[in-house]
Amino acid sequence: MSDIDVAIIGAGFGGIGLGIKLREAGFENFVILERASELGGTWRDNTYPGCACDVPSHLYSYSFEPNPDWSRTYSKQPEILEYLRTVAAKNGVVGHMRFDTEVLEAKWDERSRRWTVTTNNGELHPRILISAAGVYGEARYPDLPGIEKFAGTAFHSLHWNHEHDLSGEVVAVLGTGASAVQFVPEIQPLVDRLLVFQRSAPWIIPRLDRTTSRIERGLLRRLPLIGKAMRGGYYTGIEGFGLVGFVDKRFRHPFEVIGKLQLRRQVRDSALRKRLTPDYMIGCKRAIFSDSYLPALAKENVEVIDDAIAEIREHSIVTRGGVEHPVDTIIYGTGFVVPPAVAERIHGTDGLSIGELVAKRPQSYLGTAMAGFPNFFSTLGPFGAVGNQSAIYMIECQIAYIVDALATMRDEGLTRVEVRGEVQEEFLDEVNDRSENTVWLTGGCATTYYRTADGRNAGLYPGWSFEYARRTAKFDRDSYEMSAV
């Protein structure tokens, strides 16, 4: 595979979409490297009970491959995975996939103007390397004393132990993020007692999920314009959350009122309600859509514990207040490692990896390119995601930009493109300046995915998604150093 043109890392939404659009643009000499034995990415790996998208399905899908047959407003994991399988097969990209192939290292070779990509199945030398690895593929565990000593059953939501029966057990859930909010209501009726260890209460917004009717699905099949209108309506509604994040924090109040009303309606106990009331502005951390999480916490067999964990023992969890809680099983709903592990394996012209550079400070250009990494592009890189829109929308923007860049290289006989260092710095100055007064940095959160340890924006684009779409609609060649030699 030495003469391969393009190597894509990851066969999830990003990799599949790239494959489809590359084929449409006339590219056939590409491979999609997937470490697992099946496509799907996040939607293959996350199989915990209740796993579903948190954006309406008509928006959480490719605009060029609408699905009129979604069974629910928010489809669950098996249906989303089946959608990806169907779309990939229909568009002829499965044949480009190399399964059970993990990227171990990637280095740029200036002399050949190709990447040397080392995998567990040998070397490749593509002209272009694209990372579509996603950000929800590496489990993050908390750094707690004694975590390795626990003698019961323990697993992360990403690696759900479906063989383990939770019935009649005392189960501890660590974390109250999006995954936990989905699986807690599913396991609550099964267990004897459920202990939810909460570091900070999330903002919970009504989900309004429902089953779609046969008539509705039939209309969508016969009248695709209805589906487009629904997608547009969902887009507008989700985009409106941007008012909280980066326009003016005063716009947050209506959203907070909705969250507080939901809390008051679903949790009658005033003491519990107080502990479940967030102490930070909505949007500072990810707000979560759910209709079932708060009612689950109000059940008699559930206890919410907001005292910090001091240590984990063989059969218990001890809080800093000195209370020991015997438990049978621990489920970690503690999120994911960002950036993904493959970022540590991709090395640029100075030998440093993407992971090393991003650890110093989040950096990229438009979330798709990075100075010091010629002929390299990515989806959902730093500052290539927004907090108020479907990730699929942003991925499609990036795919269009990347494919236009590759078409430019092909049509003009270019062998090397690299974003100019000064252009990237101007972009980073812009996003950091625009982030200064956002709720992400000034909303009162102690820790969050949205900010770095030193208080900077950790990688969200601080603007409207439609503005981002305009900026990525066409490859801006003047921002790059390009050579045909």
Structural summary, described in words:
This protein is an alpha/beta fold and 485 residues long. The protein folds into two domains: 6-138 and 337-483, 3-Layer(bba) Sandwich (FAD/NAD(P)-binding domain); 149-203 and 242-332, FAD/NAD(P)-binding domain (3-Layer(bba) Sandwich), CATH 3.50.50. Helix content is 31%, strand content 16%. It is built from 15 helices and 21 strands. It has helices at residues 13-24, 42-45, 77-90, 178-187, 214-222, 224-239, 242-247, 252-266, 270-275, 293-297, 354-360, 391-412, 421-435, 439-442, 465-471, and strands at residues 6-9, 30-33, 97-98, 103-109, 114-119, 122-124, 128-131, 153-156, 170-174, 193-197, 204-205, 288-289, 302-305, 309-312, 316-319, 324-326, 329-332, 346-347, 376-378, 416-419, 480-483. The chain has a five-stranded parallel β-sheet, covered by helices on one side. It has a five-stranded parallel β-sheet with strand order 8-17-9-10-13, with no helix packed on it. Helix 1 packs parallel to helix 12 and helix 5 (214-222) crosses helix 6 (224-239). 46% of the residues are buried. This is NAD(P)/FAD-dependent oxidoreductase. It comes from Antrihabitans stalactiti.
Features:
5-stranded parallel β-sheet, alpha/beta, FAD/NAD(P)-binding domain, 485 residues
Could you outline the blueprint of secondary structure elements for this entry?
Layout lengths: L5 E4 L3 H12 L5 E4 L8 H4 L31 H14 L6 E2 L4 E7 L4 E6 L2 E3 L3 E4 L21 E4 L13 E5 L3 H10 L5 E5 L6 E2 L8 H9 L1 H16 L2 H6 L4 H15 L3 H6 L12 E2 L3 H5 L4 E4 L3 E4 L3 E4 L4 E3 L2 E4 L13 E2 L6 H7 L15 E3 L12 H22 L3 E4 L1 H15 L3 H4 L22 H7 L8 E4 L2
Parallel strand pairs: 1-2, 1-7, 2-3, 4-18, 7-19, 8-17, 9-10, 9-17, 10-13, 11-12
Antiparallel strand pairs: 4-5, 5-6, 14-15, 15-16, 20-21
Helix pairs in contact: 1-12, 5-6
